[in-house]
Design brief:
Elements (H helix, E strand, L loop, with lengths): L15 H11 L5 H4 L19 H14 L5 H8 L7 H7 L4 H10 L11 E4 L3 E6 L9 H23 L7 E3 L9 H7 L3 E2 L5 E6 L12 H18 L4 H12 L7 H7 L4 H10 L4 H19 L4 H7 L5 H12 L3 H10 L1
Parallel strand pairs: 3-4
Antiparallel strand pairs: 1-2, 2-5, 3-5
Length: about 350
Amino acid sequence: MSGILPKATERIYAPYKINAVVEVLAEQGIPAQSVLAGTSLSPGQLHNPNALTSIKQFLTVCENAIALSEDPATPFEVGSRLHLSAYGMYGYALMSCLSLREYFRLAVKYRRLATPPFPAIWEEGDQVVTWRFPGNFVSPPSAELRRFLFELQLAITVTHVQEVAGFDCPPMGAKIPYDRPKHAALYKKYLGCVCEFGKVETQLFYDSAILDRKPKMAHQLTASLVQETCDRLLGQAKISEGATGEVYRVLMAVPGNFPSMEEVAERMNTTPRTLRRKLALEDTSFQQILDDVRRTLALEYLQSSRMSTDDIGMLLGFSDTANFRRALRRWTGKGLEDLRLSTARE
């Protein structure tokens, strides 16, 4: 998976995963208040479109589910109900992609938008596509929570691939990184494939022949629009990460009058040298962050305003329109005319 996993305490996710757990346990007679214990969330917030939650709150709900539920099918049942339509723009980007190969790629690229407790990687072989779920978690789990999260993820993945494909598309097999549990039959029931237990890593295998198949909801214009939206959301999510996040916050606070690296370092009570070193450790630089902020704002202005090209370029600190045009092409691979045309189509 490219990118950095979010911090466990960042409240940047809609509560769709938490709500799915609450709904499944409600059917088992367990009240929502009990499932939400320790999260500071109320049942009403789960249906609030403006509510934001963190991975830590999601993990607390999963721990509560383990303690409260006696049904080992709970994580599988939750995963089978987490349809892509519940994931907002992330889900629509995956549903509208133009091939299943594109689906696999985007599912990893935009995974940060899906309340991810651990990363995902996909690898394409001659005959097999492998989903890999490494066990480096955002927050170290107990053995019970680890198994719950892997079972949940496997069920989610099978559900999403099937929904995107629109045709019968079960995995070829799975590898599970723990001993065979008593409820091993549930794996075959919900995943539809043979599972090997006691392996090194959680993996799910698909026939590579599906990669060039066209998803049932493939739509080029929709795919382009929602993918651009997801790119903007990823840019916004970066605002809360480490030194990178602090720089983003400073730059976004004064769009159009971007301070220098020296000025940003002073506002952060550090030196330019220390800031440069911290950003390098996070695999970025001040210039990369500034370019990303400018790109995000440029697309936003182009898509949500009627400002002239000259005005947008000036707002973003460009000395002339030609430099702005060159920067747009470098950032997006598109010319200004193409970007304006896609805006008009909206």
